[in-house]
Design goal:
The complex is a heterodimer of chains A (339) and B (285).
Chain A (H helix, E strand, L loop, with lengths): L2 H21 L7 H10 L12 H36 L11 H15 L5 H26 L7 H24 L4 H8 L8 H20 L1 H7 L3 H6 L4 H23 L5 H13 L3 H25 L8 H24 L1
Chain B lengths: L1 H23 L8 E3 L2 H9 L6 E4 L21 H5 L5 E4 L6 H7 L3 E4 L6 H15 L2 H26 L3 E5 L12 H9 L2 E2 L17 H7 L3 E4 L9 H5 L8 H5 L2 E3 L2 H4 L6 H15 L2
Classes of the chains: A mainly alpha (339), B alpha/beta (285).
Chain lengths: 339, 285
């Protein structure tokens, strides 16, 4: 298939996921009713919505914002994962590699524990964002001080170190306040909040800027895949490209994590699935990751919302449940290809 | 034959004596009690055993005069507990073999895990009374709780007919079904709990409902048990997307209940029942 066809197919997948996401939920809203309700929102069309005010609110204030949020988070995590794998030439790299998850987890825990008297729902996203950013900056500083080279391996090790430390502090704080376990865990397991359009508006600028920044480097990521020395001899400033891509991916991931909690595996399985079927070129991989990642997370959330309806599953459970077996297959295949 | 008869006769005599003996001389009344259970702490003070309590865990925040410490009931440190030289430890969990370890140190342990219904809660208060030497007062307390709850329920049940309730444990919509202790309180009134549709085996009675389901069910009463943990209020609930159409929001029937009252099964359960009765009176005024 040509790249253009791949993009078309992935766009259709995303569109189909969005439609499924908007139509499927614990409350039944039919396709025709939903379309009429949408038409009623277009001015001068004079269509009246067939839905009750409650169903209108469910469709437009609860379900559709959550679907859009899922698409943004999924696109961001998948693309960030793909770019991390590119700049570190490490197939196991995921968006949380440099400690952003551990840092955001600590930030979120501190917000839940120490800001209980105010509405911590509002304080949690900025706290998680700051925590994630601090962790990655710390990892970068440690990695730089240890010297660069060997494809960013020192940076990865610094990330692991920082993540371990932040996780330890997070666990300690949580142990001291065991009554907050429920709120903290609900964030750690990952969930798309039903918070209306507010979180979409908060997240959108970060995701747009981060994705644009990453896409601008898609050709350079292809060059980078041949190795640091070769890329340097081709005139690429490897360190600068790595820093720019990591910066974009991290800011976007921190923003996504701040709203949705720690949703695992999207950043690993989506890029790898795309590599398997459409090839490894970042010029195609990155746009496809945006489209497929968004669609994948929307579908995962449909399962999270409906599998135990009217109860909900944490979405992180869904992505890992389907992600882990898939990842095992990817590992087997890639080992066989290497052998 | 006669030897057998003698033995039987001896048994007949000895058994009642042994039985009455164990009643006449109970184990010594404890004077250094450590409570690792917030519910037990409340009950101990309510039955007059407060002066015998030397330490309570970090979750025991009621009553104020309880000897608060940093002891943890979730991740207990046996040395720290033993350091208070207790002659009785009351716990609601038994993590990491806590009970066996304490008993090995010669400390009496009473485990009172979460009651699943009111009778279980009453039995625990009576058991505490028996162990601490305050049985008469515990009996009076239980009788008074029963009387108050019965009066509130009798008065309010006609008002509750056909009404639905949603009990919120957190703003992420974790809730309780009718199979839990709190859920049974709503059943007393005959209220229909909207979470019962989600009462699968896996939820353990505490499912997380989806927002669109709660809005579509439009419960008549919303009970907020997350006013302390999560600063929720009638205002924050009304401001949630889609919730303005919920019946309880329209009628202002949003009950605020102290998180700790609604998560324990002690004497203050009467306050909880009274709050629900108050909401029903408000609705049917």
């Amino acid at each position: 298939m040509t790249p253009r066809l791949w993009i078309l197919a992935a766009s259709l997948f995303l569109a189909a996921s969005l439609v499924v996401g908007a139509l499927v939920g614990p409350v039944h809203i039919g396709l025709v009713d939903a379309l009429q309700s949408a038409a009623a929102r277009i001015p001068f069309l004079h269509v009246r919505t067939p839905l009750s005010p409650a169903d209108e609110a469910i469709l437009w204030d609860i379900r559709i914002p959550r679907v859009v949020l899922g698409a943004l988070v999924g696109a961001m995590l998948a693309t960030a994962g793909a770019s991390y794998q590119g700049v570190f030439r490490n197939p196991l790299a995921d968006p949380y590699l440099l400690g952003v998850a551990a840092g955001a987890g600590l930030g979120a825990t501190l917000a839940v524990v120490y800001l209980r008297s105010i509405d911590f729902q509002n304080a949690l996203p900025p706290a998680a964002f700051v925590g994630g950013a601090v962790a990655v900056v710390a990892a970068y500083a440690i990695g730089r001080s240890a010297g660069t080279g060997s494809g960013g391996a020192t940076l990865v090790l610094a990330g692991v170190t920082v993540a371990a430390f932040f996780t330890a502090v997070q666990t300690f704080v949580q142990q001291q306040h065991s009554d907050t376990i429920q709120e903290v865990y609900s964030w750690i397991l990952g969930r798309l909040p039903s918070s209306g359009w507010r979180d979409v508006v908060i997240l959108l600028p970060y995701v747009v800027v981060a994705l644009a920044g990453i896409l601008l480097h898609r050709r350079l990521l292809d060059v980078l895949s041949v190795g640091d020395e070769e890329a340097t001899s081709l005139g690429v400033n490897v360190g600068r490209v790595r820093l720019a891509v990591v910066l974009c991916a991290t800011v976007g991931t921190a923003a996504a994590v701040a709203v949705s909690g720690l949703i695992g595996f999207v950043g690993i399985i989506v890029p790898h699935a795309i590599r398997l079927v459409a090839g490894p070129s970042y010029r195609l991989l990155l746009p496809l990751s945006i489209l497929v990642g968004g669609g994948f997370l929307v579908l995962a959330d449909v399962i999270a919302r409906t599998a135990l309806s009217p109860a909900e599953l944490p979405i992180g459970v869904v992505t890992a449940f389907f992600g882990a077996p898939f990842f095992a297959v990817v590992l087997r295949t890639s080992r066989r290809m290497a052998a | 034959m006669s030897r057998l008869l003698t033995a039987l006769l001896a048994l007949l005599v000895v058994v009642p004596v042994a039985a009455s003996g164990s009643q006449a001389a109970p184990a010594a009344v404890p004077h250094r009690i450590v409570s690792l259970s917030p519910t037990a702490t409340e009950s101990l003070f309510a039955i007059g055993a407060g002066p015998q309590v030397v330490a309570v865990d970090n979750q025991s925040d009621y009553p104020k005069q309880a000897p608060h410490t940093s002891l943890s009931g979730f991740t207990p440190n046996v040395e720290a507990i033993a350091g208070y030289k207790p002659d009785l430890v009351v716990a609601s969990y038994d993590p990491n073999g806590l009970v066996a370890t304490l008993r090995r140190l010669g400390i009496r342990v009473l485990v009172q895990d979460a009651a699943t219904n009111l009778d279980g809660a009453y039995a625990q208060i009576l058991a505490l009374g028996r162990v601490t030497g305050h049985l008469p007062r515990a009996t009076r307390l239980v009788a008074s709780m029963k009387r108050q709850i019965a009066a509130l329920v009798t008065k309010s049940t006609p008002r509750a007919r056909g009404l639905t309730v949603f009990h919120e444990l957190g703003p992420d919509l974790y809730t309780v079904t009718s199979s839990t202790f709190v859920g049974r309180v709503y059943s007393l009134f005959g209220l229909k709990n909207i979470a019962d549709a989600a009462d699968t085996a896996g939820s353990g009675g505490y499912p997380k409902l989806s927002a669109e389901y709660v809005v579509s069910q439009s419960p008549d009463i919303v009970v907020l048990a997350d006013i302390n943990c999560c600063a929720q209020s009638a205002k924050t609930v009304a401001a949630r997307p889609g919730w303005s159409s919920v019946a309880a929001v329209k009628t202002g029937t949003i009950v605020r209940i102290d998180d700790s009252i609604a998560s324990r099964w002690g004497p203050r359960i009467v306050n909880f029942v009274r709050a629900i009765a108050g909401a029903l009176a408000h609705l049917r005024r």
